[in-house]
Amino acid sequence: MTPNFGATRSDIRSRHALLTPESHEWIIQPGWEGAEFSCLISPDMGAKFAMFLLRFPADCMAPPALPGVARFLLCLEGEFQLDASTTLNTGDFAFLPPEDTAALRITQGSRLVLFEWCFLASGPVPAALHGSVDAVTGQPLRGNDWLIVQKLLPTDPAFDAEFNVMTFHPGASLAYVETHFMEHGLLFLDGGGVYRLDDRWYPVEAGDAIWMGPHVPQWFGALGRTPARYLIYKNYNRSPLARR
């Protein structure tokens, strides 16, 4: 491997972060035999959730989440099983509520992105669900048919989070600079462009991840000849006074 002599596009700040592949550190975790983790976002940086990339040099049986913790997984490559009859492949996703008992098995050579957060119940906790990104109907965002959003979880107040896939036609952008109390975790799946976070502007591409803390001014514009697409998380359906 050619040394990069200290160069990286990663930029970690108090209210936002860009995490790029050349700076990923891969580690092992107890109970995850066969898996390697890169923890991109965690409460240690100020977030109220965790986001991991996982790769699997060998088959793996995942341990259950910590008590009260929900999970969302998207298969980036390969496959994983929720039980003996449910196999999810590249582009498939799963939501696992706290205390879920699914036997999560991941096949050697697979890659996943995993989100974990302390779930805030509003009534009965929703059941586990799974699906395929390709099967989710996209809708124009605020009438802009060059910017399509696919909502992967039901629009139901029982869910305390949203996971969406956003697709931008080349040249499309968010309509305005957003500022709100919700935080985000984001992984670029395809394409790229320029992301504004606070008063900084970052070139971004497939494989990059972003953390946006509450009230960070944010904006994205797609560049290039192919669509830009990313998976994005945000805490939702909860008051800003709710504690995680």
Automatic annotation (TrEMBL):
<dbReference type="InterPro" id="IPR017627">
    <property type="entry name" value="UGHY"/>
</dbReference>
<dbReference type="InterPro" id="IPR044697">
    <property type="entry name" value="UGlyAH_cupin_C"/>
</dbReference>
<feature type="domain" description="Cupin type-2">
    <location>
        <begin position="165"/>
        <end position="231"/>
    </location>
</feature>
<dbReference type="InterPro" id="IPR014710">
    <property type="entry name" value="RmlC-like_jellyroll"/>
</dbReference>
<dbReference type="GO" id="GO:0071522">
    <property type="term" value="F:ureidoglycine aminohydrolase activity"/>
</dbReference>
<dbReference type="InterPro" id="IPR011051">
    <property type="entry name" value="RmlC_Cupin_sf"/>
</dbReference>
<dbReference type="Pfam" id="PF07883">
    <property type="entry name" value="Cupin_2"/>
</dbReference>
<dbReference type="InterPro" id="IPR013096">
    <property type="entry name" value="Cupin_2"/>
</dbReference>
<protein>
    <submittedName>
        <fullName>(S)-ureidoglycine aminohydrolase</fullName>
    </submittedName>
</protein>
